[in-house]
Amino acid sequence: MSHRHFCDFAGHYWNCDGTATRIFAPEVSVCMCLTHGVPMEEGDHSECSIELLSCPEHRDDQLRAMGYEPGDMSELPLPVESEKSQMFTDKDGNPTIGFCLWCGEDFYTMDEVEAHNADDMRECPVYQQSKDELCMPPALQWMIEQAEELKNKEEE
To answer: Is the pTM of this model over 0.85?
Structure first.
């Protein structure tokens, strides 16, 4: 069973057989449903969001347009450690698709994100408590404070 991607470089849909090469990856990896967090080959995902991913015919052109020579993996900015993305993980090391900047809740599927953010973020207790104040999410505030500390240390 195949599924579709949208080639974000050339602007067309293309069919995939279940695995594809991401832009800075040296080899193919399993395509995951962005909505459900499972491989695209598990179930019907015809109504789910599709991944923006350059097609095999345009991948090298996209790399060149970004200033990289295809095939030369020595200068790529993103290390590839495994087939699964390690960008977000929960406290137990399980992969997540993201987290709430307000309360820190981990999300494993887009359905969880949408439920958390629905109705003016009704399910987020920290946002609900803070929404009438002029403030930013605690995670962003912490990141800004860390950046300021690093800047001050560099200036010393």
So the answer is: no
